[in-house]
Design goal:
single chain; alpha+beta; four-stranded mixed beta sheet; three-stranded antiparallel beta sheet; binds protoporphyrin IX containing FE; heme; Cyt_P450_E_grp-I
């Protein structure tokens, strides 16, 4: 903080320009708080007050010749950043969209940005002009935490992205590959139910805190698929791999979830980047050092196993098999995603994918796959606790679809039942509308200048699609402020994976960047929910008359501010829980 002030005064002396220092003062008020800073800020603002009208010269010049969408006037250097001081970004953007219309233009530091909540405009971005808006904006998080975009979820559009996305869809997330991990998902769901039972059995009315359990469930599924390891467990004996490995990886993930979505001032005002005023880049580097050490171990283990497998296969074929045939064979029998990645060819004829690319893919997939699934599970359970009749409807549906075993006990829900659980799907779809995984979908960026709704959109404009606002749009939905899964039952469009042609809600994004893990995400979420709702009745904690449903946008995701606690009562005979 003191660095920021010294820097501010230095610049003030050098430039002696009222508007410049005022803008910086506002910038500091945005990013820092405390009495010293606020008093300095107010002094500097007073200096600058008389010059306000001059501020807009630059913005007018920037707009010259272009018909930009409406939006508040930007300040020099900081642009519209000060509008977001001390408030929730997505809520402020909602207000601005209300004031300026469905296509809002902002300048965040040096970055042109458009924000929308309108299905018609989203259709332009994700459908009609998807070829223009399919890139991603640069960020220090991408540079530091995913090896400068060596993966693909955050990388810019181009041959590298295309190559990796194709690999990901064909080799990692193909239904036949995912089917191989069916047993792992089943085991983790079993463990989830057992953990809730253990807590609930301690004493009648005991509350279960769900967030940690749900995160453990999704993370273990992801690490088992990716690297055949399980790092998260209530019992240390159940963890595979060293305790240090697990600790390093957990720390990385914790920091990554937060830092991949932070508003880092250096990304918006490039000349401030070297100062790392908020300390985010330092945190990112620290987390990355640990993640690298951890990933090097994983890679070495897998690499050695791959070499062994290769030499065994070559020897057993008497040297008769070509390298390509050996690779195809290894790919076919690969245990996990890292095995697959080590057997795949790289770009432009390279024999293998680079180490950085493989590590970036692991980190990106972990980041996009885990919280995106655990967060909607927590929201759905919160809604179920508040709506016992919906809970009952799901339980009745499960009983009907699963039937009973030879002892007359209800059969445990399996993945093969999920497709028939129509009401549960409607509930999940409603969760994605009403409580989307993130307030904004992952940002897109324009690759060339274009026009949308009659306005000019410059090249390299960041596109923010406010999923929360879209889901609550009264022009798109009747009673948008109510959680009503029934709204989907009559539409013939109950499947959350089916993209709404009108794009009234886009939980998995759209166009070339549409989420490639949507069906896996839906499988994990609905399996976990079905198991928890089949096994238990969920009620409000004793003495509470409602759940606190306030949301908090944290990094890439949007969760409940107050982690969900609820009472779980086993609802089936004891034999059900001890199969
Ligand atoms: C319910 C769970 C999930 C939700 C709600 C969700 C949602 C999203 C959204 C909104 C995007 C941005 C799309 C866009 O930019 O237009 C996205 C991208 C992505 N998701 Fe998911 N996701 C989920 C689960 C998963 C899972 C399980 C995986 C993989 C294992 C995954 C992998 C990805 C990847 C790799 C991208 C980036 C695609 C690209 O840039 O080309 N997601 N997801």
């Amino acid at each position: 903080m003191s660095h920021a002030l010294v820097f501010l005064h230095l610049l003030h002396n050098i430039y002696n320009s009222w508007s410049f220092t005022s803008a910086l003062a506002l910038l500091c008020s945005f990013f820092f708080s405390g009495p010293f800073v606020s008093s300095s800020v107010s002094i500097l603002n007073n200096y600058a007050g008389a010059q306000n009208s001059g501020f807009h010269v630059l913005s007018r010049m920037a707009r010259k010749g272009l018909k930009l969408p409406p939006g508040p006037r930007p300040w020099p250097i900081v642009g519209n950043l000060p509008l977001f001081a001390g408030c929730s970004t997505h809520r402020r953007m909602m207000e601005l969209n209300k004031k300026y219309g469905p296509l809002l233009y902002l300048r965040l530091g040096s970055r042109p940005t458009v924000v929308t909540n309108s299905p018609a405009i989203v259709r332009e971005f994700l459908k009609h002009q998807d070829h223009v808006f399919c890139s991603r904006p640069p960020s220090s998080a991408r540079d530091i935490m995913v090896y400068g975009g060596a993966g693909f979820a955050l990388s810019e559009y181009g041959p590298h992205w295309r190559h990796l996305r194709k690999i990901c869809i064909q080799e990692l997330l193909a239904p036949s590959r995912l089917q191989r991990f069916h047993k792992d998902r089943h085991e983790e769901a079993q463990i989830l139910v057992a953990q809730v039972l253990e807590i609930a059995s301690k004493q009648a009315g005991q509350e279960v805190e769900l967030r940690e359990l749900l995160t453990t469930f999704t993370m273990n599924i992801a690490t088992r698929m990716m690297m055949s390891k399980k790092y998260f467990s209530a019992s240390a004996a159940d963890v595979q791999g060293s305790v240090q490995e697990a600790a390093a990886f957990k720390e990385y993930l914790h920091v990554a979830f937060k830092l991949l979505g932070v508003f880092n001032v250096g990304d918006y005002i490039p000349f401030l980047k070297p100062f790392d005023l908020q300390g985010y880049e330092r945190q990112m580097r620290k987390a990355m050092r640990k993640a690298r050490t951890f990933l090097d171990v994983i890679m070495r283990e897998h690499y050695e196993a791959a070499l062994k497998a290769r030499s065994c296969r070559t020897t057993s074929s008497g040297g008769g098999s070509s390298a390509a045939a050996v690779d195809a064979d290894i790919l076919q029998s690969a245990h996990d995603f890292v095995d697959v990645l080590l057997a795949l060819p790289g770009e432009n004829g390279a024999e293998r994918l680079s180490n950085d690319t493989i590590q970036a893919l692991i980190l990106e997939l972990m980041a996009v796959a885990t919280e995106t699934s655990s967060v909607p599970m927590e929201w759905t359970l919160a809604e179920m606790v508040r709506n016992p009749q919906m809970q009952k409807k799901i339980q009745e549906e499960i009983s009907k679809v699963c039937g009973k075993d030879e002892n007359g006990i209800e059969s445990v829900v399996q993945e093969s039942h999920l497709n028939e659980l129509t009401y549960l799907k409607a509930v999940f779809k409603e969760t994605l509308r009403f409580h989307p995984g993130g307030a904004f979908i992952v940002p897109h960026m324009s690759r060339e200048p274009t026009k949308v709704g009659g306005y000019d959109i410059p090249k390299n404009t960041t596109v923010l699609i406010n999923a929360l606002d879209m889901g609550r749009n009264p022009e798109s939905f009747d009673k948008p402020e109510e959680f009503l899964p029934e709204r989907w039952l009559d539409t013939g469009n109950v499947d959350p994976l089916r993209i709404d042609p009108e794009m009234r809600s886009v939980p998995f994004g759209g166009g070339r960047r549409v989420c490639p893990g949507a069906s896996l995400g839906q499988c994990i979420v609905t399996l976990g929910l079905a198991r928890l709702l089949q096994a238990f009745d969920w009620q409000l904690p004793a003495g509470k008359d409602d759940i606190d449903m306030e949301e908090e946008a944290f990094g890439l995701t949007m969760s409940l501010v107050t982690p969900l606690k609820a009472r779980a009562t086993p609802r089936l005979p004891p034999q059900f829980y001890n199969p």
